[in-house]
Design brief:
- The relative contact order is 0.17.
- The chain is an alpha/beta fold.
- The strands form 6 sheets. The chain has a 7-stranded mixed sheet with strand order 3-2-1-4-18-19-20, with no helix packed on it. A 4-stranded parallel sheet has the order 12-15-16-17. The chain has a 3-stranded parallel sheet with strand order 5-8-9, covered by helices on one side.
- Helix 2 (135-145) runs parallel beside helix 3 (170-182), helix 7 packs antiparallel against helix 8 and helix 10 (293-302) packs antiparallel against helix 11.
- It has helices at residues 70-82, 135-145, 170-182, 197-202, 219-225, 233-236, 239-246, 251-262, 264-274, 293-302, 307-314, 316-321, and strands at residues 6-16, 19-27, 30-32, 42-51, 53-58, 62-63, 66-67, 85-90, 109-111, 116-118, 128-130, 149-153, 155-158, 163-166, 186-191, 207-210, 228-230, 335-338, 354-357, 360-363.
- The longest helix has 13 residues, at 70-82.
Length: 384
């Protein structure tokens, strides 16, 4: 092994919810728990170690006006990476980011194709916009573009009613989800409000983003069907500002958004307590910057999710859900090093001391969250 740099990760390596190791070695970019027999040119990293974090709701390639250029997409991916998010599920993007797959310094992306929305019922230039009769066909197309996921816009403001309403009739949703499943893809949907959730769950949807409209009526259904949620609490924190912008024109919508915001922690905690699968996502790339994964995990803890479960939602459980390994023998060495135990101080997740991607140290000092990808202006309200 002469001339090959080997990493020794020394300290407390958290490889599972109840399992730690003292030493892990990185050889040829992969994890091993066996000390190399000829360990020369060794670089030692000390600290508390987690598998690379998972941002399961990211939008690399999406900006305030829709698609972005490759340089901006690269900056977005780097911001996520430097924050410790080393596996991204891109929950809808109009940009082809396949070129990032050839870059060993950028985190892997699990893509969901482009958002699919009802005509004039989503943010301009973000989505493919179709009518209910076209939904199943659009789902088939996006399933073939993605990496095993499709993203629907399940609800949005209805300008005539002046409030959030479901975008799709139940029969269109059933046909669309069945079409995706025949293509071997799972389906997720943006949903803020209550109306669409039962139809989506009963149609066999696999996941719902935000899910602020869950209630005591739909939480048991989600738990029974195994429908996962990605709460994006850092995104939900923007609801009061959006409500203030739209209140004069759409007071019912504004009041609804404030109610959803006010009960956000109770909703997430009730879903968790009922056994609904829960994973972390930030919604970086639209109204929010990239690089907020540490803040999202901290928000789960603020909501009352036990620290171990919040960490699992960003690491072991999330990687298993997306079919990617954690810190196991022979797995790619994607890991994050912290100066203190995140189980005792969840705030340290926002300050990784080292980020190792595919066995290489790619970040040594934390940059400000979202510094490379902060939007230059607020996102236009959804009612414009």
């Amino acid at each position: 092994m002469g001339g090959v740099t080997i990493l020794r990760i020394r300290g407390r390596v958290l490889i599972g919810p109840d399992e730690t190791r003292g030493d892990v070695w990185v050889v040829g970019g992969r994890i091993t728990f066996e000390r190399p027999t000829a360990a020369r040119d060794v670089v030692t990293l000390d600290g508390w170690v987690l598998p690379g974090l998972v941002d399961a709701h990211s939008h690399v390639g999406l900006g305030l006006a829709g698609a972005v250029d490759d340089k901006t997409a690269e900056e977005q991916a780097v911001a996520d990476r430097d924050a410790g998010a080393l596996l991204l599920r891109d929950a809808g993007s109009p940009t082809d980011t396949r070129w990032t797959d050839a870059r060993d310094d950028l985190p892997p992306i699990v893509r969901a194709g482009r958002h699919i929305a009802r005509t004039r019922r989503y943010i301009k230039d973000f989505a493919e916009e179709v009518e209910p009769g076209e939904l199943a066909g659009a789902v088939r197309r996006e399933a073939r573009r993605g990496d095993g996921w499709v993203k629907l816009v399940g609800d949005w403001i209805d300008r005539e009613r002046g409030d959030l309403t479901s975008c799709w009739p139940a029969d269109a949703v059933r046909a669309a989800i069945a079409a995706a499943h025949r293509e071997g893809a799972r389906v997720t949907a943006h949903c803020f409000a209550e109306d669409a959730l039962r139809d989506l769950a009963e149609a066999g949807i696999d996941c719902v983003e935000h899910a602020t409209g869950l209630t005591e009526d739909t939480i048991p259904l989600f738990a029974e069907r195994g429908v996962a949620i990605v709460p994006t609490l850092v995104n939900i924190g923007t609801f009061p500002g959006l409500a203030a912008q739209g209140e004069a024109r759409y007071p019912r919508w504004a009041a609804h958004m404030r109610r959803l915001h006010a009960r956000r922690y109770d909703t997430v905690r009730a879903a968790h307590d009922a056994g609904v699968p829960l994973y972390t996502g930030t919604d970086g790339g639209s109204s929010l910057p990239h690089g907020l994964i540490g803040s999202e995990v901290a928000e789960l803890v603020t909501a009352g999710i036990p620290v171990d479960d919040a960490l699992a939602a960003a690491t072991w459980s999330a990687r298993r859900w997306l079919g990617r390994p954690g810190l196991t023998e022979g797995a790619p060495a994607d890991l994050v090093v912290y100066a203190a135990d995140p189980r005792r101080d969840i705030g340290v997740l926002g300050h990784p001391s080292r980020v190792v991607l595919r066995g290489r140290v790619v970040a040594r000092t934390p940059r400000a969250p979202g510094a490379a990808s902060r939007p230059s202006r607020p996102l236009s309200p959804p009612f414009e």
